[in-house]
Design a protein that fits this description.
The protein is globular and about 80 Å long. The strands form three sheets. Strands 1-9-8-5-4-2-3 form a seven-stranded mixed sheet, with helices on both faces. The longest helix is centred in the middle third of the chain and has 32 residues. Helix content is 36%, strand content 12%. The chain has 436 residues and is of the alpha/beta class. The chain is built from 14 helices and 13 strands.
């Protein structure tokens, strides 16, 4: 008789795991205070004292900047619009190349295309899953304008060699910190090392405002350009006598007073949420180390801090005797999802398919690819472009969220029991190959 749930046996757990919900009475009170004023937004798209928004917007930006020790913070309505704004601020134009990660949310790579630039994909490091500085260097050409670094899963990228390359070749560095709020690289907060940092406040991030984002920088010039692009730049370049009008056609990327009031309260909770996340990861790593087929990601050293948006693990099919997809599907059958996430599993094989394999790149569908300035560029978007990324995604890596705050040791023990049950009954799966 089958013991594994995927084959009809009884699952280790059927009760949903606890919800990850960081919204409490503090946020409700803050929202009501804004509603009582009737002032839900105070932005004006003109040269005016309200060009930079209302009191909650300004307070949230100031407190975010103070929290990570950076000179400026600019709120925007998403990490995606923050990335777009950053590309505009640094002056990306048709034919410019921006080195990007193939293993991230799609916006991390699409951002250069908004201004006619083109993404060039550097491979990832097999331990950190962030862009490999050696691969980045191989991608640099005379057309390279910037490096868009992603601190994927909350692990800081190796910023010292990346910043050295940027200095050597006179390149901008933009840090995508969507999954890494308050992560550190050698004691420095991510988002404070490059020219611009971009954070996410999307609902499934560490903290959130529903939708939202933050741009950080120590550059007065770049911050002013970000503020202009965020809020109808074309209306104020005249009054400000702005000489460089490159990309200063503005958008409406503004956050509201309500969102920023929520953000002020969420930011207060972030250190405690990260502490619990790190504690849970340490507990799971200790328990999962008993399984030889699992390769756990080592914690960063030298004052660096991983914030674990998800918990990445590599799977050794030679040791296990089954492939990763089969294992992940078996694990999904043993464990439920969570409250508020009923239809979305907390575990997945790989992360995202290498971005350059998306149709937009395969078909060269964006206008930037058709621009005459791109005609002489050599762009590689075929299978084999980033072999480490492909190996990780299609064969080795899986990620899970069973370490989120709110998970008790008993909850995590159920997760470990599911791993143990599968490995103890692995023969049930050795004749099965599935697609995760």
């Amino acid at each position: 008789m089958a013991k594994l749930a995927i084959n009809g046996g009884e699952a280790v757990r059927t009760e949903l795991f606890p919800a990850y919900n960081t919204i409490g009475q503090e946020e409700k009170d803050a929202v009501m205070q804004v509603l009582d004023t009737g002032n839900l937004s105070q932005f004006l798209g003109a040269e005016h004292s309200d060009f930079l928004g209302g009191p909650n917007v300004k307070r949230f930006e100031r407190e975010w900047a103070d929290a990570i020790g950076v000179k400026h913070a600019v709120s925007v309505n998403s990490n995606t619009s923050g990335l777009f704004t950053a590309m505009g601020a640094i002056g990306i134009q048709p034919g410019d190349e921006v080195i990007v990660s193939p293993y991230s949310m799609s916006a991390s790579a699409i951002a250069p295309l908004i201004y006619g630039g083109v993404p060039v994909f550097a491979d990832i490091d097999p331990v950190t899953f962030c862009m490999d500085p050696v691969s980045i260097e191989k991608c640099i050409t005379a057309n390279t304008k910037a490096i868009l670094v992603v601190h994927i899963f909350g692990h800081p990228a190796d910023m010292d060699p990346i910043m050295d390359l940027a200095k050597k070749h006179n390149l901008y560095v933009v840090e995508d910190c969507a999954q890494a709020p308050m992560a550190k690289y050698k004691g420095k907060y991510v988002g404070t090392i490059g020219d611009l940092g971009i954070f996410s406040l999307n609902y499934h991030k560490h903290i959130h405002t529903g939708e939202g984002g933050v741009i950080t920088s120590n550059s007065d010039k770049l911050v002013e350009r970000c503020q202009m692009i965020r809020n109808h730049a074309e209306n104020i370049v005249g009054p400000r006598n702005t000489e460089d009008l490159t990309n200063l056609i503005g958008y409406n990327y503004r956050m509201t007073e309500i969102e920023c009031a929520i953000g002020i309260q969420q930011l207060k909770k972030l250190p405690g949420l990260l502490e619990e996340r790190l504690k849970n990861v340490a507990y799971l790593n200790e328990q999962l180390a008993q399984f030889p087929a699992l390769e756990l990601q080592p914690a960063p050293k030298d004052g660096s801090v991983h914030t674990y948006y998800v918990h990445p693990i590599k799977f050794n099919k030679e040791i296990a005797g089954i492939d990763r997809n089969t294992f992940v599907n078996a694990l999904k059958a043993e464990l439920p999802s969570a409250i508020l996430r009923e239809t979305a599993p907390l575990i997945g094989a790989g992360y995202v398919k290498p971005i350059y394999l998306q149709p937009i790149y395969q078909e060269r569908a964006a206008w930037a690819f058709q621009h005459p300035a791109a005609a002489e560029l050599t762009l590689k978007y075929e299978l084999g472009t980033c072999p480490v990324t492909e190996k990780m995604h299609f064969e080795l890596l899986f990620t899970h969220e069973f370490m989120r705050p709110g998970m008790s040791e008993q909850d995590m023990d159920d997760v470990v029991r599911a791993f143990k049950k599968i490995f103890n009954n692995i023969n049930e799966l050795k004749s099965v190959e599935t697609t995760a």
